[in-house]
Amino acid sequence: MNFIETRGNDGKHPLKVSFSDAILNPISSFGGIYSPESLPNLGSDFLSNHLDADYKSLARNVLNAFEIDIDAAVIDEALALYDTFDDPTNPVPVTRVNDDLYVSELYHGPTRAFKDMALQPFGIVLSSLAQKRNENYLILAATSGDTGPAALETFKNRANVRVACMYPDGGTSDVQRLQMVTEDAANLKVIGVKGDFDDTQSALKRLLGSESFRQQLQDKKIHLSAANSVNFGRIIFQTIYHIHSYLELVRQDAIAMGDKVYLNVPSGNFGNALGGYYAMQMGLPVEKILIASNNNNVLTQVIQTGAYDLRSKAVIPTTSPAMDILKSSNIERILFDLFGAERTKQLMAQLDDEKHYQLEADELAKIQEIFVADFCNDDEGKQYIKDAFAKGYLMDPHTATCFKAYDTCRDNKTLKTIAYSTAEWTKFSPVIANALTGEVDARDLDALKSIAKEASIEIPKVINDLFTKEITQKRVIEKEQIEAEILAFL
Length: 490
Ligand SMILES: *Cc1c(COP(=O)(O)O)cnc(C)c1O
Description:
By secondary structure, this protein is an alpha/beta fold. It has a domain at 93-111 and 234-459: Rossmann fold (3-Layer(aba) Sandwich). 44% of the residues lie in helices and 15% in strands. The strands form 4 sheets. The chain has a 6-stranded mixed beta sheet with strand order 3-4-14-9-10-13, sandwiched between helices. The chain has a 5-stranded parallel beta sheet with strand order 8-5-6-7-15, sandwiched between helices. β5 (136-142), α6 and β6 form a beta-alpha-beta unit. α5 (115-132) packs parallel to α6 (147-155), α11 crosses α12 (271-281) and α19 (429-437) packs across α20. The relative contact order is 0.14. Bound molecules: pyridoxal-5'-phosphate (PLP).
């Protein structure tokens, strides 16, 4: 399968690229991104043929349907990483919360958040391509918490890839910071930056635009790639668990094969939701995809009104920080898929220049055939955490936003809903402890202990060990020093 550009071709980039080119060099014409030229149709028997398949076999066959140019042995090695999840026979457990709400838990991997689902296998794929081509790659990441740990974990000691990861000093949770600063490998560099996440991210953007930096990379023969969800190498692994979760509902006798379901996704950059959209286009019986946001509700607005409007908006810090996003990158792939490259280029240029666009009525209708959206503020989220816990389900604040959309967005109450849980309770424990016991401003370790006590569960060892592990990545710098720091690392 080939990949083409969401904003059309500028005559300088190739018209079509392979999967491996799209993931090694994700930058395309006019600032667009690579999308599949067409989507595979899984065919009517695919689901029933995979009813008894384990996660890895399902994944292999979904990937095969995309006809990507990755050796089977590499794919097998990549998928084998799901064996390191809590339950190797089922890396994504689906838990029944009530008669029609099921939660698909995407956080049972090494860093306890959903980024592992895609980044774990992606690390193997990227590193093996780099080795095959005898090229060296640098992944630059600015993180507010979840992508950083998952990217470091997957690229640790992998050949031909180096990662430089910047986080806002004081702007992440203790657990997230410890997950990064205790990573010890020669190909990883973790840098605390004085300032907030926006400062860190704009420092990274400046670096990417810096001519001297580019020249130095060229001299050192180092290529830049990206590990954010603009990279299709992550999205492809995010189609699989939607199909798996559906099959789990059939296996649990919650639905009959062929019944429609709602998918309910806590969204930021829209990678998770895009995976659901692709699964639906490939033949998964989905009624609609419920898009849950927090107070940064641009996605709610665009899906409800067709207006993507960033004028007079600034990021609002919330208790679900992985969703504190205004420019949701993967919406662009939906625009491209539904309205084509020319229209996508027009809309995205308007968003860049004027900070807003408005979809036409017929375009909005097409979006609303597939998506429905609502947002959940922090107080509502806290209440959902409390209520779910009272009924026996412990969840994190990102997952909680889904529970609001579940309440408000379904037209057909006879259908089952699959909500996606994107982080374990251990990643955002102060918020959860506050919801459950009322304690305020607890540090992570105290919050973890009080939740563990409240729920009569243990703190997982990988999290507990962080607090006594040696801190190996000690650099905290001013944002002006980033370029020099990274060049020194290289
Ligand atoms: C990344 C992330 C999200 C948002 O996912 P997108 O694919 O960017 O929409 C939600 N919750 C958590 C915990 C995350 O890490």
